[in-house]
């Protein structure tokens, strides 16, 4: 749970892609616990159903709709269904992503493309569809979940690093284009977050130092909650790195 007041998102509707597992699930739960009605989407209906049941048991109103962010027509259907059910769509969190660690030499052409398709093009598809269907007329907030890789070389994650750098750029462009319409667009860049699929997969190939694994899914959710709250009303086009300082730690000193 966060330290923010309950019900600060009362009356709002939030769509979270990748919201049935890992960081996205904690974001969905946290926005829901603070009063938002939520919509979660990803490919596997069984994960969506399990998450929805958990949320409903906690008193959170949840729609769980299967789609693939790579397919604009499916994304449009999810957004239309959410607006039909709830009457609005105020918050979009783009968290869906794919990843498998591999050096460039061992990565196929298609492997690189798949990650860029999900992370970058998927974020664009959801953002554009939500803008067209609702945000353009009513304003709102978008938060993109990226990674703190934009200015670094990241061995074995060429595809993810390139895609997330693209999402950071997209975040800033959407922020300036849409500020006049009352839409804020920001990003949250997690470091290594304990008990997630991302770290499990990366950890199998890399030795992640224990000190870098102090971040929790709730830490990510709290950053998103702040950005979509009215307390962040003048924050637009920024990236909040939530990594304890680990990724700027050139000398490998302890993180918070
Ligand atoms: P995760 O549990 O695997 O979350 C990724 C989600 O995206 C899954 O729910 C997956 O569900 C969904 N997804 C994948 N492809 C999709 C598609 N084509 N269409 C719709 N949904 C799709 O991993 P996580 O580690 O929590 O990562 C969550 C986010 O944090 C990602 O954006 C990741 O890049 C970012 N991140 C994580 C870390 C970390 O330490 N874990 C670090 C930096 C950044 P389906 O397979 O059912 O579709």
Tags for this model:
single chain, 256 residues, alpha/beta, Rossmann fold, 7-stranded parallel sheet, 7 helices, globular
What is the third-level CATH name, the topology? Answer: Rossmann fold
Taking Cα atoms only, what radius of gyration do you get, to the nearest Å? 17 Å
**What is the overall silhouette?**
globular
CATH class: Alpha Beta
Largest sheet: 7 strands, parallel
Instruction: Label the CATH architecture.
Output: 3-Layer(aba) Sandwich
Q: How many beta-strand segments? A: 7
Spatial strand arrangement across the major sheet: 3-2-1-4-5-6-7
Molecular structure report:
This protein is of the alpha/beta class and 256 residues long. It has one domain: 3-Layer(aba) Sandwich (Rossmann fold). 44% of the residues lie in helices and 15% in strands. The protein contains seven helices and seven strands. Helix 1 links the parallel strand 1 and strand 2. Helix 1 packs across helix 7 and helix 4 runs parallel beside helix 5. It is globular, with a radius of gyration of 17 Å. The structure holds NADP nicotinamide-adenine-dinucleotide phosphate (NAP). NADP nicotinamide-adenine-dinucleotide phosphate binds next to helix 1, helix 4 and helix 6.
Task: Write a brief structural summary.
This protein is of the alpha/beta class and 256 residues long.
């Amino acid at each position: 749970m966060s330290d923010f007041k309950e019900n600060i998102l009362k009356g709002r509707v939030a769509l979270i892609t990748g919201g049935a597992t890992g960081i996205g699930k904690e974001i969905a739960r946290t926005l829901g616990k603070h009063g938002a009605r939520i919509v979660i989407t990803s490919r596997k209906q069984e994960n969506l159903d399990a998450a929805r049941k958990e949320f409903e048991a906690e008193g959170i109103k949840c729609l769980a709709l299967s789609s693939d962010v790579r397919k604009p027509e499916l994304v449009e259907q999810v957004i239309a269904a959410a607006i039909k059910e709830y009457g609005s769509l105020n918050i979009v969190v783009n968290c869906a992503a794919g990843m498998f660690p591999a050096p460039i030499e061992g990565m196929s052409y298609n492997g690189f493309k798949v990650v860029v398709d999900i992370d970058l093009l998927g974020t664009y598809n959801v953002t554009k569809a939500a803008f067209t269907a609702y945000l353009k007329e009513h304003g709102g907030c978008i938060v993109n979940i990226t990674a703190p890789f934009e200015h670094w070389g990241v061995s074995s994650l060429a595809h993810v690093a390139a895609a997330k750098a693209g999402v950071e750029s997209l975040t800033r462009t959407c922020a300036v284009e849409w500020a006049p319409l009352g839409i804020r667009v920001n990003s949250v860049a997690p470091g290594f977050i304990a008990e997630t699929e991302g770290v499990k997969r990366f950890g199998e190939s890399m030795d992640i130092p224990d000190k870098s694994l102090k971040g929790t899914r709730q830490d990510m959710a709290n950053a998103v909650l702040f950005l979509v709250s009215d307390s962040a009303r003048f924050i637009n086009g920024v990236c909040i790195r939530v990594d304890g300082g680990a990724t700027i730690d050139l000398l490998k000193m302890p993180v918070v």
